[in-house]
Specification:
226 residues, mainly alpha, Heme Oxygenase, Chain A, 10 helices, binds protoporphyrin IX containing FE
């Protein structure tokens, strides 16, 4: 079990948590990657509203194993001190994704459409870190949930207009209607409450950057396939 509760100032300097909070560090560490992914594959088509229905369904289908593995890991660690402050089941997207895929691709979407190989590789990585390096899960929660809470609402409007979808028919993935859903700043504050040391924070930063690369590989693969 990682050592998480020693008073920070009594730790040797290299183990003292840095002054800047985790949320700000992740934002700084991934800003470039965010700008890059907006120009990548189907994500670029999502932004300019040219994405095909097939590619959009493929994108949602490829996110299913990613959310399933992430949410299984977060459930497993909901009482792990280093992560617990930033685990919000109200943000979990697994069920909403399945509902949207049923609307867009019919009840047999799971057997009729295969996820991208890159998302299955990502899924195995998430299972591995949930087992071996749980704090790293925070990086993927940040990339997915803060992204969904931030840009997701913009994307919902584009997709809704393009495919004639509404929050209760096809846009459940972007709908955070439960009153106890954290806002983007609640989520950032929760990240800052996670008692990680400098080594763990460096791990989470690295994982967040790699997560954007994993998403970019999925986005490129979907363009190649459509
Ligand atoms: C369709 C393309 C996208 C659009 C239009 C979009 C838009 C946005 C916007 C407007 C914000 C808020 C920025 C701010 O607070 O200053 C944001 C934040 C964020 N987005 Fe995106 N985004 C897109 C794609 C993505 C993707 C594909 C990912 C991850 C795979 C992602 C992850 C994030 C994250 C983690 C944040 C929070 C940054 C922070 O405040 O720390 N976004 N996005």
């Amino acid at each position: 079990m990682p050592r998480l509760h020693t008073a920070p100032m009594s730790l040797p300097a290299e183990n003292r948590p840095p002054a800047e909070g985790l949320a700000a560090r992740l934002r700084g560490a991934t800003a470039e990657a965010h700008a890059r992914i907006e120009r990548t594959g189907v994500i670029a088509e999502l932004i300019d509203g040219t994405i095909s229905r097939q590619a959009y369904v493929g994108l949602l289908r490829s996110l299913v194993p990613v959310y399933a593995a992430l949410e299984a890991g977060l459930r497993r660690h909901r009482r792990t001190p280093g992560l617990a402050p930033a685990i919000f089941p109200t943000l979990f997207r697994g069920r909403a994704l399945a509902a949207d895929l049923r609307v867009l691709a019919g009840p047999d979407w799971a057997v009729c459409i295969a996820p991208q190989a890159e998302s299955l590789i990502y899924r195995e990585h998430l299972h591995r870190i949930a087992r071996d390096r749980p704090p790293a899960l925070l990086a993927h929660a940040y990339v997915r949930y803060l992204g969904d809470l931030s840009g997701g609402r913009l994307i919902a409007r584009t997709i809704g207009e393009r495919f004639g979808l509404t929050p209760d028919r096809g846009l459940a993935f972007y709908s955070f209607c439960r009153p106890d859903t954290p806002s983007p700043s609640d989520f950032r504050r929760a990240l800052d409450l996670c008692p990680l040391d400098a080594g763990e924070i460096a791990l989470v930063e690295r994982e967040a950057r790699e997560s954007f690369e994993r998403h970019a590989r999925i986005a490129r693969a979907l363009t190649a396939g459509s």
